[in-house]
Inverse folding.
């Protein structure tokens, strides 16, 4: 620890999970995240863990359900079509309040789509995807170092809130090489893993029941309200964002993940030209950082949401901005990333209009 | 004369009334599982996986740690639990819609990997919980709410013989088909359930007991008619016996 190592994104994510104490991985191959299971299949046996290639993403996520029920740190990784297939299981995991980490290295859709990076699964990640009133805690790193840091924290967060945590990445992040450092996550008080896990009946003197069925409407309503209170608590305590040159900005770009990395360069370019540009970068996309948009200064003229989608996060940006200034959109899709120049030009256009 | 107790509720069976219809044999199957858990002394270290089907509330009756899995996914849930905690005894309890239809991939691959788990498979030739729709195991000519004129091979294919199918795989340790429709079958069924759990405890791989079971409610029969129908119609198509035994 403490030293930087050059790693491919997917492998860095996998190593971070292992360093965070994850010992059990269940997954099914899909591009562009295959290096995660491949790395896990090599490394987990070395550290006394289990790697298991499931027969499908449906099975993977239900293995995660079964694994999480033992109280151990378990994860899966996939990409868009695989996450769709996991949606039912994710809903059951959220309903049964089990901790786990799901890495989603998003690719272009819909359908089989393509294998190149995209951000077109923002709705799926932040609005569910599966059925029922549940939310994931969704972390959207922008650099490999941040992806590693957030992964180191993700398992703690999952255990504290007894909720699935999703690392929302994209193919760029998965495939790029960068020097990263594995630093332990900030210390947090964690619940005892045996509290509700199966396999500790003798010690606990009480059996464990891992379930999500509440046939009595009053009981199901109470369960839903309990989940809602948990999501509200996440919003209070875990919402994260980065504000970059926003204090005096007239034009604020809203972007997350890889797009934010590109947008940062665009903001710098615009500043060099004398244009007061800035950026708000959500780091958690659920809970979404509405406050930095609510609190934008009166000098702000317009907000530009930039995404590798046809416009999904922009809905949250609009909720935050609440009509105070116009919100416009620039996006590239299908595996095409916006360039620095394209984003800068989109901001310049705002000034002219 | 001193009183001798010759029959009592298994320790692993909760002292409650089940929600099963009169004449339903789910309850007998539960009892056999509970008796075997008692006999093997594994109540504290056993984890069950409930299906989605009439037996979803098995956790109200069998008093062990339990998961409630999504429809058909029990074997995947059990796989992970057992891989992480090989010291526990892990079983799933699944209906024929759960196991042979929506969850066929999960059970087949768990069997093929030789997961060291036990599957109790209740074949009642119908979807009980949802009100009597056709199952993959529904017999030709048998009426169901979604084949009101009776199952027809050219429309719905043939009933599926799960035990035989899984017995073609190399990895499973023990596969048997039994019935609980008449007292004489119940003793055999109990032996098979016990062998299945023993196979797991001995580390000899995947075990499955298919239990031919009644659903008088959705078969539209009285309880006794249902047991007769099972013997006359189901057993000839679904022969009882052991299809795979541990070496
Ligand atoms: C994904 C999904 N699809 C459908 C259902 C509805 N459903 C509940 S139980 C069931 C069939 C149960 O039949 P079986 O497994 O044979 O069990 P039985 O009630 O006969 O014991 C179905 C289709 C569901 N709960 N989940
Ligand atoms: S519907 Fe059928 S399977 Fe379900 S409890 Fe009633 S008799 Fe048993
Ligand atoms: Mg059935």
């Amino acid at each position: 620890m403490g030293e930087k190592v050059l790693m491919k994104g997917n492998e860095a994510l996998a190593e971070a999970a292992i360093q965070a104490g994850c010992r059990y991985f269940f997954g099914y191959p899909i591009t562009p995240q295959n290096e995660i299971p491949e790395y896990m299949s090599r490394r987990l046996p070395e550290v006394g863990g289990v790697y298991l290639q499931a027969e499908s993403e449906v099975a993977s996520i239900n293995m995660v359900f079964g694994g999480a029920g033992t109280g151990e740190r378990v994860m899966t990784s996939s990409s868009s079509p695989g996450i769709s297939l996991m949606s039912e299981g994710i809903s059951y995991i959220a309903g049964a309040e089990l901790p786990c980490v799901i890495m989603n290295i998003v690719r272009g859709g819909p359908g089989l789509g393509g294998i190149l990076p995209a951000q077109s699964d923002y709705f799926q990640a932040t609005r569910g995807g599966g059925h029922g009133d549940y939310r994931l805690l969704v972390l959207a790193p922008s650099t490999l170092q941040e992806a590693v840091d957030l992964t180191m924290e993700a398992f703690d967060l999952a255990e504290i809130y007894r909720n699935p945590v999703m690392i929302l990445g994209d193919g760029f992040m998965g495939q790029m090489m960068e020097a990263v450092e594995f630093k332990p996550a900030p210390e947090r008080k964690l619940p005892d893993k045996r509290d509700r896990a199966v396999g500790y009946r003798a010690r606990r003197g009480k059996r464990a029941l891992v379930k999500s069925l509440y046939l009595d409407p009053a009981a199901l309503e109470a369960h839903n309200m309990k989940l809602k209170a948990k999501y509200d608590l996440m919003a209070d305590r875990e919402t994260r964002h980065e504000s970059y040159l926003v204090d005096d900005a007239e034009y604020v770009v809203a972007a997350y993940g890889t797009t934010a990395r590109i947008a940062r360069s665009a903001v710098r370019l615009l500043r060099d030209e004398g244009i007061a540009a800035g950026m708000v970068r959500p780091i958690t996309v659920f809970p979404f950082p509405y406050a930095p948009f609510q609190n934008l200064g009166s000098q702000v003229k317009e907000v530009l949401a930039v995404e590798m989608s046809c416009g999904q996060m922009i809905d949250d940006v609009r909720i935050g901005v609440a009509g105070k200034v116009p919100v416009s959109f620039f996006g590239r899709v299908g595996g095409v990333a916006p360039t620095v120049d394209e984003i800068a030009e989109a901001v310049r256009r705002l000034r002219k209009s | 004369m001193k009183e001798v107790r010759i029959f009592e509720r298994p320790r692993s069976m909760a002292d409650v009334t089940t929600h099963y219809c009169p004449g339903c044999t789910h309850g007998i199957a539960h009892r056999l599982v509970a008796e075997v858990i008692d006999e093997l002394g594994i109540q504290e270290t056993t984890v069950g996986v409930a299906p989605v089907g009439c037996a979803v509330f098995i956790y109200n009756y069998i008093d062990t740690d339990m998961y409630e899995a999504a429809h058909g996914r029990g074997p995947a849930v059990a796989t992970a639990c057992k891989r992480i905690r090989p010291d526990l005894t892990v079983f799933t309890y699944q209906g024929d819609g759960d196991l042979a239809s929506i969850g066929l991939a999960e059970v087949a691959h768990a069997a093929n990997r030789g997961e060291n788990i036990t599957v109790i498979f209740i074949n009642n030739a119908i979807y009980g919980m949802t009100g009597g729709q056709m199952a993959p195991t529904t017999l030709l000519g048998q009426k169901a709410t979604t084949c009101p004129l009776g199952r027809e091979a050219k429309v719905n294919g043939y009933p599926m013989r799960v035990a035989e199918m899984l017995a073609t795989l190399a990895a499973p340790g023990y596969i048997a088909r039994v019935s609980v429709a008449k007292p004489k079958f119940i003793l055999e069924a109990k032996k098979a359930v016990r062998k299945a759990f023993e196979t797991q405890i001995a580390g000899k791989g995947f075990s499955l007991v298919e239990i031919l079971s009644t659903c008088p409610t959705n078969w539209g029969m009285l309880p006794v008619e249902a047991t007769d129908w099972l013997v006359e119609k189901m057993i000839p198509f679904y022969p009882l016996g052991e299809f795979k035994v541990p070496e």
